[in-house]
């Protein structure tokens, strides 16, 4: 049974294509081709702007898709979030001109520009300041100071904000790319099985990216010291060497721990250390 998948155009396309490739599915086309082909499965693909995806999946126009949490919240899209992929992490922030005082700004009736009408309205209402909200259609950062007192926009590095002489005064929400599904689709056993299998492989790839496989040898007298250092997924694999004068050890370790771990392993008596990438960890 054919699944309908929707993928964002633009910079997220390449990250999704890479993830699908590591799963074992080949996406043929590019972000200019609105209907690329996905080989290796029975899935029909279409590209849309990120802003349109949550609503289209919620309506059942597509079974599964990839969308930022910011647009899921903004559209109040009734979808099932299956996995936070962590792609394109951004913050929605409130900003004012860099020379202005935030406490003083909050005392007056402010004009706010944002693409995110619902999120901005909810935030400003909770903030308790009188405001007039303008819907922006891109280039939100150019509004202050002449046309708005504040903007609410997304940022990853803050460079565009600083370049326009603005400063961040608050973080509204944090967002990253989510793998989502239509809720009614998940009630179809055949489609749900397809989605579950795809999700299993995607999680395996994401877990694999976070870890490396460490292999090493050590003597009998140092085995306990070495093994106690290894934060493996469950427990390290230990086997006796052929000549029976030591042990071979394998462990899947979080990539971020390797830099500090390797000197400690060597000091504890580990030798012949090999570090290997992991394609999937299930």
TrEMBL record:
Q: Which GO terms describe its molecular function?
A: glycosyltransferase activity
> Which pathway does it operate in?
Amino-acid biosynthesis; L-histidine biosynthesis; L-histidine from 5-phospho-alpha-D-ribose 1-diphosphate: step 1/9
UniProt xrefs under InterPro entries: ATP_PRibTrfase_cat, ATP_PRibTrfase_HisG, HisG_C, N-reg_PII-like_a/b, N-reg_PII/ATP_PRibTrfase_C
ATP phosphoribosyltransferase catalytic domain: residues covered: 49-203
* Annotated ranges, domain Histidine biosynthesis HisG C-terminal: 209-280
Primary subcellular site in the record, as a coarse category:
cytoplasm
Provide the E.C. number(s) assigned to this enzyme. Answer: 2.4.2.17
Q: What does this protein do?
A: Catalyzes the condensation of ATP and 5-phosphoribose 1-diphosphate to form N'-(5'-phosphoribosyl)-ATP (PR-ATP). Has a crucial role in the pathway because the rate of histidine biosynthesis seems to be controlled primarily by regulation of HisG enzymatic activity.
Q: What is this protein called?
A: ATP phosphoribosyltransferase
Source organism: Kangiella taiwanensis
Gene that this polypeptide is encoded by: hisG
């Amino acid at each position: 049974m054919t699944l309908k998948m929707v993928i964002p155009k633009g910079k997220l396309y390449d990250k999704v294509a890479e993830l699908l490739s590591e799963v074992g599915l080949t996406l043929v086309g590019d972000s200019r081709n609105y209907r690329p082909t996905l080989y290796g499965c029975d899935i029909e693909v279409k590209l849309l702007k990120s802003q349109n995806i949550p609503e289209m999946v919620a309506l059942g126009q597509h079974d599964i898709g990839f969308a930022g949490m910011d647009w899921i919240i903004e559209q109040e899209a009734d979808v099932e979030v299956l996995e936070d992929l962590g792609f394109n992490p951004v913050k929605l922030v409130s900003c004012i001109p860099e020379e202005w005082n935030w406490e003083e700004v909050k005392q007056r009736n402010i004009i706010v520009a944002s693409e995110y009408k619902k999120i901005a309205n909810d935030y400003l209402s909770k903030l308790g300041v009188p405001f007039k909200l303008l819907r922006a259609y891109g280039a939100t950062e150019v509004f202050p100071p002449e046309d708005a007192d504040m903007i609410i926009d997304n940022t990853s590095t803050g460079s565009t904000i600083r370049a326009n002489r603005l400063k961040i005064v608050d973080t509204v929400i944090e967002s990253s790319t989510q793998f989502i599904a239509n809720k009614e689709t998940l009630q179809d056993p055949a489609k749900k099985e397809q989605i579950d299998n795809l999700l299993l492989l995607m999680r395996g790839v994401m877990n694999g990216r976070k870890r490396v496989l460490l292999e090493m040898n050590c003597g009998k007298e140092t085995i306990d010291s070495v093994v106690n250092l290894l934060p493996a997924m469950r427990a390290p694999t230990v086997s006796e060497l052929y000549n029976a004068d030591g042990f071979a050890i394998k462990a899947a370790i979080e990539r971020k721990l390797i830099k500090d771990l390797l000197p400690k392993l060597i000091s504890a008596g580990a030798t012949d250390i090999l570090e290997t990438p992991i394609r999937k960890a299930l």
